[in-house]
């Protein structure tokens, strides 16, 4: 059965487009790195919209924002939804913010229908989901779930040495509330960020699992020297070492195809001068696979590739695995609620595994959790051209609303 409460798709779309003006980039995307001034402006707008919808807003010590709509039974933990406001440097208008504003639309639609739920309904915005400015990703939902302690979360540094704690205080989002609280159920709506739903013509992805991830930071140190007089055989070129590892990482991903993903996405070359042999290179590695044992084999192969490059080029190596997020099975009852909501609304759907990390992956440690995916154009995300259709945006929010309502009954 579908609920009587209907999402206002046009209102949700308008809010998404209004929000996309904050940090807008020339190619139609957004740059809203965590805890920058534009992140603050987007947070401020979200808080204002929550208050206008009658919510009580609280901010916790990690800067996570919660907009709460009271239910009939204040003794029940909230049914929560949410995602993130921050973006990649060349991010799109939907990654993260769709799940936040879909949650706000759930509350606006409940208000319009005059529905009082048994459990309270909350919409959350989690700090620094992307892990782009501050590694690792999902750090604040991780603190919420007890995966990281508060001290660890607040002390994460960006490449300029600024910490999350300092930047939260600077933008006025170092809240008072303790991090973590009971949650009755959690649902996150998100664009798929991959090609499957679009290719198969499905409207809703019922997310059953999320794949595991391992993130590394590596510094190769060789020797800076003059690009002219230094003979090739005597060189200790750190960038050549990194190049070998980048190629090896790519091959390791291909060897474990079709499910593996392996990426070097960040490289810093020092001194980065065209006529000096690179003496030091810092780079990151991102490995993903839905099967933990395969992810461990990829870990072993990447470590071997780094050791080989270092030995052959006589480089010193500082290698650290900075993050391990194991594969996540979502809660069968919440997954079933998403599937039932898609079914009841007549939306085509299929089960799907998330390739990306999401705050839901950590919230799943402390609350029954599931996710709703909608297609995105060409499967493209982490790109300014990221796009989703108004019909799919509305469908995902309707499924989110109905799944939440099914869990909000006493
Ligand atoms: C978050 O966007 C991720 O890296 O999966
Ligand atoms: Mn996201
Ligand atoms: Mn993302």
Structural descriptors:
single chain, 410 residues, alpha+beta, Aminopeptidase, Alpha-Beta Plaits, 9-stranded mixed β-sheet, 5-stranded antiparallel β-sheet, 12 helices, 35% helix, binds glyoxylic acid, binds manganese (II) ion
Q: What sort of overall outline do the alpha carbons produce when their principal axes are compared?
A: elongated
The amount of helix comes to 25-40%
CATH topology name of the largest domain: Aminopeptidase
Biggest sheet architecture: 9 strands, mixed
Per DSSP, what share of the residues sits in E-state strands of 2 or more residues?
A: 15-25%
Could you tell me how far the N terminus lies from the C terminus, measured between alpha carbons in angstroms?
18 Å
Structural class by helix and strand composition: alpha+beta
Q: How many domains in all? A: 2
- Taking all Cα atoms into account, the compactness measure Rg is 22 Å
What's the CATH class label of the largest domain? Alpha Beta
Q: Number of helical runs?
A: 12
